Amino acid sequence: MSYRLHILGASGTGTSTLGRALATALSLQVFDTDDLYWRPSDPPFVDPRPADERVALANALFLPRSNWVLSGSFSKWGDPIIPRLTHVIFLTLPAGARLARLRARERRRYGAEIAPGGTRHTAFNGFLDWAMCYDDPAFTGRSRRGHEDWLGRLTCPVIRLETNATSDTVLAQALAALDALETAD
Q1: Which among 7, 116, 134, 141 could bridge 89 via Cys, Cβ 3.0 to 4.6 Å?
Q2: How distant, in Å, are the alpha carbons of 9, 49, 157 from that of 4?
Q3: DSSP states along 143-169
Q4: Does residue 42 carry a pLDDT above 90?
Q5: Interval 92-143: pLDDT, tens
Q6: Could you give the angle at the alpha carbon of 179 between the alpha carbons of 176 and 183, nearest 5°?
Q7: Per residue in 147-184, pLDDT tens?
């Protein structure tokens, strides 16, 4: 079976973690939309590429291939990618659990730099504020409402997983859902 999987959800739901795990389990290459969206910079995540450059980069890196995993979100700029998808996995997790995961992840990445007075403290708090707006229906950034609208336009199968479990459990659930879809065909 050919897999061109896209995994999306709110920041902190585990899209990158599941993407890497699925890629390993299925012997696929994994890509992340952050690598398409943001130009390399120090500090990171401050210089976005124009949408046409993101799509061109995706075309150069992986879209022509028959198998891949793409984690992250491209729902506001990646419509040319949609026809290439075979499956989408949508991850959910309550806001409090997402916030705890994001704080732990950023502490691992940046340590004291995100503490009060640290060089990344302001950016860190801005990121958390942005991430916690995901469930606000009035929020115009990456949001649950926006993702649900986008998912409603897809013609490929959409698998929905709650990720308030271990990474191994979520991987097993994703693989079982993919197997069930393959068996149903």
Answers
A1: 7
A2: 17, 23, 11
A3: -HHHHHHHHTT--S-EEEEE--S-HHH
A4: no
A5: 999 999 999 999 999 999 989 999 999 989 999 999 999 999 999 999 989 9
A6: 140
A7: 999 999 999 999 999 999 999 999 999 999 999 998 88
- Taking the C-alpha atoms of residue 149 and residue 147, their distance in angstroms, rounded to an integer, is 5
3-state helix, strand, coil in the chain (%, to 5): 50, 15, 35
Record the pTM: 0.94
147: phi then psi, degrees, rounded to nearest 5: -65, -45
Question: Averaged over 16-20, what is the pLDDT?
Answer: 97
CA atoms within a 13 Å half-sphere pointing along the CA-CB vector of 143? 11
Question: Which pair of structure tokens corresponds to residue 98?
Answer: 């997402």
Contact in structure between 92 and 162 (CB atoms under 8 Å): yes
CA distance 69 to 17: 11
Helix (H, G, I), strand (E, B) or coil at 76: coil
